[in-house]
Amino acid sequence: MLGRLIFCALALYAWDARADIPLDISGFGTLALEHNGQRGADWRSTSEEGVGVGRSSDSSGAVASLFGIQADSQFSAKWHATFQVVDRELSNDSFAPYPEWANLRYSPSNDLHLRFGRISNNTFIMSESREVGYTRMMLNLPIIYVIDPIEYINGGDASYDLRVGDATYHINLIGGQSDLHLTYAAGVVHYHFQQVGANFSVNWHNHSWRLVYNQDRIDSSGPLLSLYESGIDQMSAAGVAGSSSIDDSMHFNGILAHFIGAGYTYDDGRWWVQSEAGHRAIASQLIQSLYGGYINVGRHWQNLAFYTQYDHIHNSTGYTLPTLTSSNPLVALVNGVDSGLEQAQNINALSLGLRWDIKSNAALKFEYTYFIKPALSVGPFINATPNFYANSAHVQLLGTALDVIF
User: Fold this and answer.
1) Pick from 319, 321, 323, 297: which is nearest to 310 by CA?
2) What span, in angstroms and rounded, lies between the C-alpha atoms of 33 and 13?
3) Separation CA 262–CA 270 (nearest Å)
4) In 10 A of CB 327, how many CB atoms?
5) Sign of the alpha-carbon torsion through 97, 397, 380, 314
6) Cα separation of 90 and 180, whole Å?
């Protein structure tokens, strides 16, 4: 993993030595160790990981670790290019490098910026730097970030800044598409997103407010869904009780999803507050509609920072798909998928954390999170056992990480 990124950095450096175009090379990385003693389910740091820490193994150094290399080139007064490669654990349970960013930025003025190519999604406060752990206080991203797992899109965006007195008003319009491979107990599902959105923010002294709206059109596919759809069609044609109800509520293509969110930050150099809330509404029972939020409060003390955070995620609609009875050999698969789709993601969590900036480019972090999971819910966990889902549970997650930039 690290060797591949070192090779990329050396290749970029060698290219820069021969080229007349200026090239700035930087990097970032997180070496993390997570421990979860609850063997009933896995906790993971991103939606793309197929395994995590807990049921698969009580400790893991892979779940939250990653490395990245970024190359920037300001090859004219108005044109800027960025290319970023990230190496981390993905859905196939192995590390693999991929381009997180690859874009051109055109700035006809100091206030107007246009980007084209692969760019970061605009959903959350930390979307632009979510892979760079050093830039945030907390070790792990807030749970609400699972509501919109899209980290980048292939397309473009336009940003404009307006300065009035001590305030800066920022508007960003974005559009493009993205693909995700998400792993479930029954198999991998491929999702294709077509997205348009906008966010508006105001920065004034130590305060910042933010509003965002995104709309996605989602198409899903994969061997698992093909078998599922075939089973539903066969049982609907045979008149199996409940199958037509599932067929009417289950959509695989052209699914409309809406996300609306708000955020607030305050930082006076000693105390800070960061909070976000969001709601995801989806017109299909294939993907759940969720709402949630978090608030993070902390204090700087020399090169140390202490913080506490509260997270909450809740289903905004219930799922009651009927259990089918049929001699069709696909009935077990259909009932199994439906059972997984019905599992709510309700969760509450309280975190305590410490950040120690040991150098100007390195920070050591410690974080303890206490999850309160109600019965008939899996929360943000995956690979849950039937007992974990059926009963309430208190889960403790311990993490430590070294975040660096270079």
Assistant:
1) 297
2) 31
3) 24
4) 8
5) negative
6) 10
Distance of CA 285 to the CA centre of its chain: 21
pLDDT of residue 13: 53
Would you list the domain boundaries of the chain?
31-62+133-405
Q: What is the mean pLDDT of the chain?
A: 90
CB neighbours of 79 closer than 8 A, spacing ≥ 6?
Answer: 104, 105, 106, 107
* Contact between residue 276 and residue 146 where contact means Cβ atoms under 8 Å apart: no
DSSP 56-77: S-SEESSSS-EEEEEEEE--SS
337 φ/ψ angles, rounded to the nearest 5 degrees = -65, -45
- Tokens representing 12? 């970029």
Show Cβ contacts of residue 128 under 8 Å, excluding neighbours closer than 6 positions: 120
* Gap between the Cα atoms of 277 and 264, Å rounded: 9
Query: How sure is the predictor about 209, in pLDDT bands with cuts at 50, 70 and 90?
Result: very high
Q: How many C-alpha atoms does 182 have within 13 Å on its Cβ side?
A: 19
Question: DSSP assignment, residue 50?
Answer: S
In degrees and rounded to multiples of 5, residue 386 shows phi and psi of -55, -35
Contact, 325 vs 366, CB < 8 A?
no
Please give the structure tokens belonging to residue 110: 């100091």
User: With bands split at pLDDT 50, 70 and 90, how would you rate the model's confidence at 184?
Assistant: low
Listed in sequence order, the residues at least 6 apart from 339 whose beta carbon sits closer than 8 Å to its beta carbon are none
Cβ atoms of residues 98 and 54 within 8 Å: no
Cα angle: 260, vertex 266, 270; to 5 degrees: 150
Q: Rounded CA gap, 80 and 82, in Å?
A: 7
Provide CATH code, domain 31-62+133-405.
2.40.160
Q: Which two tokens stand for residue 285?
A: 């029972």
Checking if the pLDDT of 133 tops 70, the result is yes
**Cβ(93)–Cβ(60) under 8 Å?**
no
**What is the spatial distance between Cα 123 and Cα 360, in angstroms, rounded to a whole number?**
29
What number of H helices and E strands is found in the chain? Answer: 5, 19
Question: Is 161:179 a contact under the CB 8 Å cutoff?
Answer: no
